[in-house]
């Protein structure tokens, strides 16, 4: 089974779309990223399993697990960060060569390499996620409108919005 393991906050901080949402809240940014991964997984079956690992604040050792449709989110607990959880997953995985680790963190990348797992840069993940947006954009048919038509549309919108 091909599996993708993502260093969650590393990805969020490197992908502008999700990093900007941290201004609202870290949870909004995280949920937005997970939603993007759910959408990606639904339209692209490149990976049979996707696991996103986040640093957590919980008590106890190990990690907390949550599922969002077909995406598994792991939150590290006390005395362990997300990087260590990723390394632990790699240590316990039977077929490491079927795992791809997505991170720009050298510690994570070096351990993935040492275990024989594939490596994906965050930029590569961003491209995979954004392919959906490009397909949607390509379906939009743009029409060249005369200036008078544009002015009519603008005038009608201003009247509708009450800013006339």
Short description:
The protein is of the alpha/beta class and 164 residues long. The chain has seven helices and six strands. It has a single domain (3-161), classed as Rossmann fold (3-Layer(aba) Sandwich), CATH 3.40.50.
Q: So what's the CATH class?
A: Alpha Beta
Helix content: 40-55%
For the record, the count of structural domains works out to 1
The total strand number stands at 6
Uncertain runs are 134-142
Characteristic key phrases:
164 residues; 7 helices; Rossmann fold; alpha/beta; 6-stranded mixed β-sheet; elongated
Task: Describe the fold and architecture.
By secondary structure, the protein is an alpha/beta fold. It has one domain (3-161): 3-Layer(aba) Sandwich (Rossmann fold). Helix content is 50%, strand content 21%. It is built from seven helices and six strands. The protein has helices at 8-14, 16-19, 26-43, 82-92, 106-115, 122-138, 147-161; strands at residues 3-7, 49-58, 63-68, 71-77, 99-102, 118-120. It has a six-stranded mixed beta sheet. Strand 5 (99-102), helix 5 (106-115) and strand 6 (118-120) form a beta-alpha-beta unit. Helix 4 (82-92) packs parallel to helix 5 (106-115). Residues 134-142 have low confidence and may be disordered.
């Amino acid at each position: 089974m091909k599996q993708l393991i993502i260093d969650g906050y590393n990805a969020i901080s490197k992908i502008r779309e999700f990093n900007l949402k941290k201004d609202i809240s870290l949870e909004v940014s995280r949920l937005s990223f997970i939603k993007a991964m759910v959408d990606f997984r639904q339209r692209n079956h490149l990976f049979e399993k996707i696991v996103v690992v986040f640093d957590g604040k919980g008590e106890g050792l190990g990690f907390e697990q949550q599922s969002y449709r077909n995406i598994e989110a792991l939150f590290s607990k006390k005395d362990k960060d997300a990087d260590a959880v990723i390394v632990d997953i790699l240590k316990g995985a039977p077929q490491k060569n079927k795992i791809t680790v997505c991170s720009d963190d050298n510690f994570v990348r070096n351990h993935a390499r040492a275990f024989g797992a594939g490596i994906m840069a965050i930029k590569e993940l961003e491209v995979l996620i954004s392919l959906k947006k490009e397909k949607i954009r390509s379906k939009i048919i743009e029409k060249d409108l005369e200036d008078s038509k544009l002015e009519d549309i603008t005038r009608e919108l201003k009247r509708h919005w009450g800013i006339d």
